[in-house]
Design a protein that fits this description.
Length: about 450
């Protein structure tokens, strides 16, 4: 078996269909491991993993562990799997070691030069950009990303290049398991306070992450983000090499950004020389992500000009301003933005892509805690659109909180807005609002992604 710790040679993944877990399974299978797992329902990810040889169960039951054709050397879980999960309880009772998803990923990183991309916003896109750029330079990195690349349709891959690129998730602090030689922090803004508790604790976990950089490694931060820039200052005082990017940075300074409906061009001064990079996804925030990926790629040994060509070929990530289709003169997109800063940045980019048409957004708040804390900020961000539909809260891992609904946001939006708590009528409502030439985007981290095709079908009927 290739590059596998003993405990991962027969791995059983509970919740194997999730973005992070399915990626680990893909790499394990490629390295010759026996992989089994379960998920609550059938999915595209399960179909793909089954075709690659994984032994899978639909439904999470204690009996799954005993029914396996090979006994697991470890059971892998994410934070989403509760201790009361019957399958996990059975695994513990059988004495099978239990690993967190991040521990399994850290095991897969062993023996590689590791680049970890962290930040409150932009980490999936930046990780994806770096991966595609390195592939263009024929360095064949292994990678694990929280979304599917549009180029390959995959969220993970076992490469032969000795480099491992990973999205580093701060939501539960599990990225403190990694030891990167190259770390990127795109920005730091309080989020996931349901886990971290306070803004101070959230910020501290990034400082702890920087402390995980191996001796001689590099930290790359956005100089335009105050908290990330401060993180760079702290790291430099500890002797960590730091490179900064942004309009105010000196290492990779953005001189100009020219937007276009299909992306944009960023012109930058890189160590005293000028370089232009075309980015095929819209928004200056995406251009910043591309420059971060460029710096990381240079540190990993790739030439700047070839990396720039690779970044120009980057076609995006599933659910990151993903084109869903067109009905007449109306274009429909889907986006994962679920924090006020992300919503505002994406809607500014959408405005460019819309041209002379209006921007209509169907937004689904994600988590009761986030909705309650940031309702005013969400409203201000959504008011950048021309017309807004706000759905009810997608609770995910949280229990409902009395009085916390999508109306908290809708009541504060300053453009025409419609609060629609009934998910099954949202597609018809949205289709009735758009006019010829409009651009409609469904937005949020929950099941709002299902509405794009339904809206297109409604528009085709009309």
């Amino acid at each position: 078996m290739l590059d596998l710790p003993e405990e991962l040679r027969r791995a059983h993944l509970i919740g194997i269909g999730g973005a992070g877990m399915s990626g680990i399974a893909r790499i394990l299978l490629a390295r010759g491991a026996f992989v089994s797992g379960s998920d609550a329902k059938e999915s595209r990810a399960l179909l793909s993993l089954r075709a690659q040889g994984a032994e899978l169960f639909v439904g999470q039951n204690a009996s799954n562990i005993a029914a396996l054709s090979q006994p697991p050397s470890a059971v892998v879980v994410s934070t989403a799997i509760k201790e009361t999960n019957s399958e996990l309880v059975a695994a513990r009772a059988a004495g099978i070691p239990v690993l967190h998803r991040a521990q399994a990923l850290a095991g897969l990183m062993e023996g590689h030069r590791v680049a970890c991309i962290a930040g409150t916003h932009g980490k999936t896109s930046t990780t994806s950009m770096l991966t595609v750029a390195l592939q263009h330079c024929r360095l064949d990195p292994s990678f694990a990303i929280g979304g599917d690349l549009n180029e390959s349709g995959a969220n993970a891959h076992h490469g032969e290049g000795g480099i491992f690129v990973a999205e580093a998730d701060e939501s539960d602090g599990s990225f403190l398991t990694y030891s990167p030689s190259v770390a990127v922090v795109t920005n730091v803004e309080p989020d996931h306070l349901d886990h971290h508790g306070t803004a101070e604790a959230y910020t501290k976990v990034f400082a702890d992450f920087v402390g995980r950089i191996v001796p001689g490694g590099l930290l790359i931060v956005c100089g335009d983000d105050a908290a990330a820039n401060e993180l760079g200052d702290q790291a430099a005082e500890l002797g960590v090499r730091v490179r900064r990017y942004g309009r105010t940075a000196t290492d990779a300074r953005i001189l100009d950004y020219t937007p276009a409906p299909d992306g944009g061009v960023v012109r930058l001064s890189l160590d005293g020389s000028e370089l232009s990079v075309r980015v095929a996804v819209p928004g200056e925030h995406m251009a910043l992500n591309a420059v971060a990926a460029l710096l990381a790629g240079i540190e990993l040994g790739a030439p700047a000009a070839e990396l720039a060509d690779g970044l120009a070929a980057f076609g995006g990530v599933r659910r990151r301003f993903e084109f869903k289709g067109r009905a007449g003169d109306v274009r429909v997109y889907d986006d994962y933005a679920h924090h006020p800063t992300e919503v505002a940045a994406q809607l500014r980019a959408v405005r460019t892509a819309a041209g002379d048409g209006r921007v209509v957004v169907v937004f689904q708040p994600h988590l009761y805690s986030r909705t309650k804390m940031f309702s005013s900020e969400f409203a201000a961000a959504l008011s950048l659109a021309d017309e807004v539909v706000v759905l009810d809260v997608y609770g995910a891992r949280e229990e409902p909180e009395p009085g916390v609904t999508g109306a908290l946001i809708a009541d504060r939006v300053t453009v025409p807005v419609h609060y629609e708590p009934a998910f099954d009528v949202a597609a018809g409502l949205a289709a009735g609002l758009v006019r010829a030439g409009d651009l409609l985007v469904t937005m949020g981290a929950g099941d709002v992604t299902q509405l794009g095709p339904e809206i297109l079908a409604e528009l085709d009927k009309r």
